[in-house]
Amino acid sequence: MSDTIRFTLDGREVGASPEESIWQVAQRCGTDIPHLCYSPEPGYRADGNCRACMVEIEGERVLAASCIRKPAEGMVVHSASNRAAKARAMVMEMLVADQPAKTDAHDPTSKLWAWADRMGVSESRLPAHSFAEVPAPDPSHPAMRVNLDACIHCNLCVRACREVQVNDVIGMSGRGHTAKITFDFDDPMGRSTCVACGECVQTCPTGALMEARLLNEDGVRVEFEQQTIQSGCPFCGVGCQIDYHVADGEILYADGADGPANQNRLCVKGRFGFDYQSSPERLTVPLIRRDDAPKEPHAKLDPANPYTHFREATWEEALDRAAGGLNEVLKRDGSQALAGFGSAKCSNEEAYLFQKLVRAGFGTNNVDHCTRLCHASSVAALMEAIGTGAVTAPFNAAKDAEVIIVIGANPTENHPVAATFIKNAVKRGKRLYVVDPRRQMLSRHATRHLQFKPGSDVALLNAMIHTIIEEQLYDRQYVAARTHGFEELVEKVRQFSPEEMEAVCGVPADVIREVARDYARSEASIIFWGMGISQHVHGTDNARCLIQLALITGQVGRPGTGLHPLRGQNNVQGASDAGLIPMVYPDYQSVAKQEIRDLFEDFWGTDLDPKAGLTVVEIINAIHEGQIKAMYVLGENPAMSDPDQHHAREALARLDHLVVQDIFLTETAYYADVILPATSYYEKWGTFTNTNRQVQIGEPVVAPPGQARPDWQTVQEIATRMDLDWTYQSPAEVFTEMAQVMPSLKNITWDRVVRERSVTYPCDAPDRPGNEILFAESFPTEDGRARIVPTDLLPPDELPDAAYPMVLTTGRLLEHWHTGAMTRRASVLEDIEPEPTVAMHPRQLRTLGVEAGDMVRVATRRGEIALKARRDRNVPEGMLFIPFCFEEAAANILTNPQLDPFGKIPEFKFCAARIEPAAQPAEAAE
Ligand SMILES: Nc1nc2c(c(=O)[nH]1)N[C@H]1C(S)=C(S)[C@@H](COP(=O)(O)OP(=O)(O)OC[C@H]3O[C@@H](n4cnc5c(=O)[nH]c(N)nc54)[C@H](O)[C@@H]3O)O[C@H]1N2
Ligand SMILES: Nc1nc2c(c(=O)[nH]1)N[C@H]1C(S)=C(S)[C@@H](COP(=O)(O)OP(=O)(O)OC[C@H]3O[C@@H](n4cnc5c(=O)[nH]c(N)nc54)[C@H](O)[C@@H]3O)O[C@H]1N2
Ligand SMILES: [Mo]
């Protein structure tokens, strides 16, 4: 039996599914019905308010809005009857009457004008409404203009803001002729709580809400694209797909495309952050350090003027010098004196070539990248437990969950588009628990926010596990069939009763029990986690606890369940898979295992180092110890992103030879001997793997500046100068080679990724979509079972004391990316968050005797910075939060480089600090 509804549309019998509207069926059958208040994009509810899509239904007295009306069996619909067409033309004429004339339209290409043109309604015979008052233009936002004289009250922007992105900023106030769109309490947009996702701009059918940079001073659109190219977003691991609109070789604006991860949605960075690409500070020529410019550990260069310390060189000379220096150290001090940092900002192909260069050319496994500072501990715990480090389910699985836990992650700022799907799920009645010492935007949507003591995750999570075991809420069958080590866990967590852990973590025992019960009992529970879990000296233990929660309750392997460490960089999953890790070759195959090494020695035609290499922080330490003498740094900025910055920069300055390949003169490049200018994401082909295991294509949208070259080409140039006979002609060729040694890429080819734009791994056949939800039957471990490793309570490495009484935690801001290299050169982003601040609770400000905006000094055992105080109720008393993107007050001067013993990740999320007022007065920062 089928539940297809049969009806007649314009004389043709057609079928509809029960969810489809008449408009959708018509569209599917190739009939365009005008529409304004309706958006066919995913996530939009039909509202049927504008009447532009009316159709005639036989036997009905009034016309029906086709966007909202469902067909019924036997219905006879005329989409283009005289009556319908006339009524629609009248609607259009009335709307046009109230618009600015087409000649001064804010956007003459808007959906409204496009339909008006198609319907032959270019001007109106009707008088304009006498509005009580046409709202004045609102130019308060750096990225978007509000021109409500063009607003038709279709409320698409309200749905965009409240139902799709769930930011709840835009509303409709007043009635009838006084009705208007408002931001918060009728605030100017730029002073409202708007997070500038731009969803409203993307959906507005009239140009009432638009990208500011397309308009002239009179609010009239003057910039039009010549071309639209689909590619990806270069920022976070969500992996949004984007339509870039380009004119005269420049990106004009960006719209969300319908990628599997983002479904047309974007955040402020993807939509408005692209103009770092055209920054005048882009590196455009190769540079060689001047002989009269010694390396000073605490140098400050002007990235706009490299010529104080560098001179321009030809590519030939620069490449010879870059490779020459590496060869010299190799010959003099041997392979172990060399190291490389690869990049999670570069493509899979570039990551693969880089690790191959270090392994086959340098002869060492000293190759690592920012994953070490990121999810290394999560990956260590996942590998140990379930034999793989990637997510078990995509973040979009939140929609199928009943209970969602977000712990140590702040997705509305750091994975904003993923956060929209979590918020959508909550709107549909799912329960959300946010577990974080700081409150955050998601807390408002949460069933509960567990605001516990930083660094006490193991106490809290073991108490949850204790509850689940004590109250027999675990899944006996699952535990018996799918895991090892449960008995040891039972033993271990005996000492972790919620009643005892309450004092340690600060969460009342009954709340711990309630959350544990809900997680265990729900039909489907999913866990998302981030840096609040991983960036601790006991980060691996934290992740182990989360994995155990899922394993003992069987909350993995089914729709709506799973373990999802939210991966950070746009290609950190891919760069890790491709082997930018010192202990493993591509696909996490151990360098220490003879049979695997044999395979790679054969495949690459060279001997390989049998010893695991050093990790990021270990490499910095090894420079101090005089072991490592030369480095190649590709697309990373350790002078800003490594902990204990003075120590890291002193190391970089000590190197005999440093090659930096980047798109900007970064703080790391200050210490370079040779700087090689790279193309940015927007200028090259490559594949990138997002947090959902989706391998996606990046396609060039503009030309590179000056002599900048794609990274893969430059890596190859270095390789050939180190006696490797590489002759790759394209990223496609590199991908093909990678796929031969990476089982994860089975059934995925370059052509397929280009054609389909996104392919999830693992994938069972070349013509079948990949598997989103993994491990329904078994885990990729030796015997297919997961391993439970119980954990102990360990304190953070550096606890507050009398001299340093505060807890300092560091992290991110929505608008900025890590070390600021890209986003501080993106005009809109820099405009919104222009200066460093330290966030603290209002009572903390009072205790200190300072106001928001006053300068303060924050010191730890490693250094001191001065920056403005910021009032933030989300930060608990006793804690300070500093983002690490501002070089002028670099958070990493303060952070503790102590490492987690398994993941080798530093404790970015916890150290002891002191704060005091600084002398200088300053204006307010709120
Ligand atoms: N805008 C923006 N987005 C980004 C990035 C960026 O730089 N800017 N970077 C990307 C990258 S690489 C990454 S890895 C991700 C990171 O994304 P997230 O993991 O969300 O990163 P953070 O903001 O560093 O930290 C997350 C949370 O950990 C909490 N936390 C601190 N201490 C503890 C603790 O002891 N326990 C628990 N449970 N929580 C704690 C903090 O309060 C914070 O809310 O973001 C990615 N997205
Ligand atoms: N205090 C503190 N420190 C932290 C963290 C924290 O939470 N607190 N988080 C840590 C984490 S999770 C991470 S992932 C790291 C990130 O640390 P990094 O990876 O060092 O930070 P990014 O700023 O992302 O550096 C990327 C670099 O790549 C360059 N780039 C961009 N695109 C391209 C390209 O196409 N080609 C080339 N060649 N270069 C390109 C950029 O200009 C930039 O210099 O920071 C870590 N450090
Ligand atoms: Mo990260």
From TrEMBL:
Classification via InterPro entries: 2Fe-2S_ferredoxin-like_sf (IPR036010), 2Fe-2S_ferredoxin-type (IPR001041), 4Fe4S_Fe-S-bd (IPR017896), 4Fe4S_Fe_S_CS (IPR017900), Asp_de-COase-like_dom_sf (IPR009010), CT_Formate-Dh_H (IPR041925), Formate_Dh-H_N (IPR041924), Formate_DH_asu (IPR006478)
Q: Which residues form the 2Fe-2S ferredoxin-type domain?
A: 3-83
GO cellular-component term (any) = membrane
Q: Which domain of life is it from?
A: Bacteria
Task: Kindly give the PROSITE patterns that the UniProt entry links to this protein.
Answer: 2FE2S_FER_2 (PS51085), 4FE4S_FER_1 (PS00198), 4FE4S_FER_2 (PS51379), 4FE4S_MOW_BIS_MGD (PS51669), MOLYBDOPTERIN_PROK_2 (PS00490)
| Pfam families named in the record | Fer2_4, Fer4_7, Molybdop_Fe4S4, Molybdopterin, Molydop_binding
Q: Which residues form the 4Fe-4S ferredoxin-type domain?
A: 142-172, 185-214
SUPFAM superfamilies, per database record: 2Fe-2S ferredoxin-like, 4Fe-4S ferredoxins, ADC-like, Formate dehydrogenase/DMSO reductase, domains 1-3
Q: Which residue spans traverse the membrane?
A: none
Question: Molecular function (GO) terms listed?
Answer: 4 iron, 4 sulfur cluster binding; formate dehydrogenase (NAD+) activity; metal ion binding; molybdopterin cofactor binding; NADH dehydrogenase activity
Tell me where in this chain the 4Fe-4S Mo/W bis-MGD-type domain is found. Answer: 226-281
Catalytic class of the enzyme = oxidoreductase
Keyword terms of this UniProt record: 4Fe-4S, Iron, Iron-sulfur, Metal-binding, Oxidoreductase, Repeat
Q: What is its EC number?
A: 1.17.1.9
Gene Ontology BP term (one): formate metabolic process
What family is reported?
A: In the C-terminal section; belongs to the prokaryotic molybdopterin-containing oxidoreductase family.
Q: What is this protein called?
A: Formate dehydrogenase subunit alpha
Q: Which gene encodes it?
A: fdhF
